[in-house]
Amino acid sequence: MPRTVPKPKLQPNGRWKLRITVPSDLRTFGFAEGVREIIRTHPPCSSRVAQSWAYREFLAFEAQVASIKLKQSGEITPELRDEYLKLALLGQTDLDAGLAADALFDESLTTMLKARGIAPAVGHEDYWEAIEAGGGGDVLANLNNLTGKTLDHLSEIESWLGISGLTRKTQAMYRSDVHAFIEAVGEQRPFEEQGVRDWYYHQLSSGVSPKTINRKLGAIKGYHGHLIERGLVDRRGPYGRPFDDLKTASKQAAKASTKNQTRPWTDEEVIHLYEAAKKGEASQLVDMIVLGMFTGARIESLYRIRKRDVDLDAATVLIGAEGDKTEAGQDRRIPIAQSLLPTMERLVARGDEPEDYLLRFRGKGDKRSDPDGKRFGRLKEKLFPGEGRKATFHSFRKTFITKLGNEVSAPEHVIRDIVGHDNTKNVTMGLYRARMSPKEMRPYVDRLVYAGWAF
After folding, report:
1. Which helix (H) or strand (E) holds 180?
2. Do 345 and 312 contact (CB within 8 A), yes or no?
3. What does the pLDDT look like over 159-195, one tens digit per residue?
4. Which is nearest to 293 in space by CA: 218, 443, 400?
5. Is the dihedral of CA 240, 246, 249, 252 positive or negative?
6. What pLDDT is stored for residue 148 in this prediction?
7. Residue 190 burial by CB count (10 A; 0-12/13-18/19+): exposed, middle or buried?
8. What is the pTM of this model?
9. Span 207-238, pLDDT tens digits
């Protein structure tokens, strides 16, 4: 069946002609007397009026098709529901469409009662009570589905995603987000304001990151907007604006959330990750982990190190040459730990040009660390399920800092210079102390040890 409205064509006599193709499977059943096309004409009028007329004619045609299929199956199909809702929505401003919706409703009721052999029970003044008493509870449920009083979320979600234009990966993520939301708040009134608010604050209290909550909200709002466009939710009704009172998480909240949640790895966990990465197919994860263990650098900063940034003679590496998350993290030269030196020598040797990056990029976009960062996330989740944001690649930075302070007894200003932390908390140090040299940092870095790890 055609899914787009055919365009009416202006004839030489000023009238408009509309041709609607009848599907072959319906012609075999004698629909429209078996003709290939249904032809309608309209008196002379403007193009806008003709388009509106064509739309109403096409909706009426689709309603007839849906009615035929209802008689064949005796069940409310998604197609029938779509046609009824279109007519009902149009019927708010168009009398003919409203009458067509009423006729489709009556025919659906009659067909279902007949298919099930149900007659309204006697002794009931209310007609709907009489149908239910006569065993027609299923019929009433189908009518509620037809009119949108109850939603078939599975079908509607697929309908929404089917026209979204999103990638398969994003569709899968949004599908999961919306299904989980509906399961949490209930299918009957998923967009009740209080229910949405409770879900939102439950996400926050459960430790879900603000960034993830905002992603989920984006999916849920998209699906809600789809239901409004379909006429299944009234924008002016009680479920039309359930998100107005919610405040999406700010960057400060996301930063605070990460700071409070992320923990260091234990030595045992580090070795477990390292050994698992060695056995996996993505060999670069091993290099990424070792670099994180002995530099404490942020993941994107590691993927921005070029061959030219490494001085093997002096055993130093420049971190943040292409920028860093903070100003203090930019352009800092630190010593290459003895435990890291073999990895650095191998990575530098495989590069042909000074401009070559040490860690290769295997994806698209500006964030070079993204593909391997996701691979690490999957490895971490496999080894330590349920950790979420409590343990991430950033945990290597936490581990590095913790070891410098607790095991090596490095002074705070030394740790700040090595990892690129801001010195503004100590005004005097921030204004008058120059950054330490790699030679001064080396005694602390070379003493870093991970129990059970050997290079």
Report:
1. helix 168-185
2. yes
3. 898 888 888 889 999 999 999 999 898 877 788 888 8
4. 400
5. positive
6. 65
7. buried
8. 0.47
9. 788 888 889 999 999 999 988 887 777 777 77
The pLDDT tens digits of the residues spanning 233-277 come to: 777 777 788 888 775 444 444 454 545 568 999 999 999 999 999
Tell me the residue type at 132: E
Of 28, 95, 38, 97, which Cα lies nearest the Cα of 63? 97
Which of 115, 106, 108 minimizes the C-alpha distance to 77?
Answer: 108
**Dist. CA 191–CA 222, nearest whole Å:** 12
Q: How long, in residues, is the chain?
A: 455
Instruction: Kindly list the distances between the CA atom of residue 352 and the CA atoms of 154, 283, 307, 308, 357, in Å, as whole numbers in the listed order.
Output: 53, 20, 9, 11, 10
Question: Could you tell me which residues come within 8 angstroms of residue 188 by beta carbon, excluding any fewer than 6 positions away?
Answer: 150
pLDDT of residue 386: 81
- Cβ-based neighbours of 305, under 8 Å, separated by 6 or more: 317, 318, 319, 321, 357, 358, 359
What is the radius of gyration, based on Cα positions, of the chain? 33
Distance CA 103, CA 90 (A): 14
Residues paired with residue 311 on neighbouring β-strands, in sequence order: 316
- State pLDDT tens for residues 279-335: 887 789 999 999 999 999 999 999 999 999 999 999 999 999 988 877 878 899 999
339, 270 Cβ separation under 8 angstroms: no
Residue 82 is which amino acid?
A: D
State the pLDDT at residue 154. Answer: 84
Query: 432 pairs with which residues across the strands?
Result: none
Distance of alpha carbon 286 from alpha carbon 274, whole angstroms = 6
Give 75-84 contacts, CB < 8 A, sequence gap 24+: 75/112, 75/142, 76/108, 76/112, 76/142, 76/143, 76/145, 76/146, 78/152, 78/155, 78/159, 79/1, 80/104, 80/108, 80/146, 81/145, 81/146, 81/148, 81/152, 83/59, 84/108, 84/146, 84/147
DSSP secondary-structure letter at 32? G
Q: Give the Cβ contact number of residue 340 at 10 Å.
A: 21
pLDDT tens for 105-134 read 887 888 888 878 888 888 888 888 888 888
All residues at 6 or more sequence positions from 159 whose CB lies less than 8 Å from its CB, including other chains: 78, 226, 230
